[in-house]
Amino acid sequence: MDALYTAVATATHGRDGRAYSSDGKLDLELGIPVEMGGNGQGTNPEQLFAAGYSACFASALGLVGRAAKVDVSDAAVTAEVGIGKQGEGFALAVTLRVELPESVDAETGRKLIEQAHQVCPYSNATRGNIPVELVVE
């Protein structure tokens, strides 16, 4: 792969620290969610992953929609990223909820979402590694 762009970010002190990008556009406090025994102050890696995945998937959906001449520009993608114990470690699971414009029929929408799942870099990175459920809303 020839990278078109490389994002660079650094995290200090793990889930209870700080994350920042090399260009200074991202600089935030990290915190452990209350559900995992933290104080809930700051964002967490799962929220960051959910934001990145939903944005990337929405872009992939737009790409396949344009190729199919179907306007999905008003679609909304919500990513739910769960974390839980698996064996001695932890694992992730993702649900992508896609709300399509009313002008897109269910069959066409489902096909476009499946196509987007094949071209989205996040989907390609997670395929075979974590469960990803696609839900049309």
From TrEMBL:
InterPro entries to which the protein is assigned, alphabetical: KH_dom-like_a/b, OHR, OsmC/Ohr_fam, OsmC/Ohrsf
Listed SUPFAM superfamilies: OsmC-like
Alphabetical GO biological process terms: response to oxidative stress
NCBIfam families with a match to the protein in the record: organ_hyd_perox
Family, similarity comment: Belongs to the OsmC/Ohr family.
The protein's name in its UniProt record: Organic hydroperoxide resistance protein
Lineage: Bacteria, Bacillati, Actinomycetota, Actinomycetes, Kitasatosporales
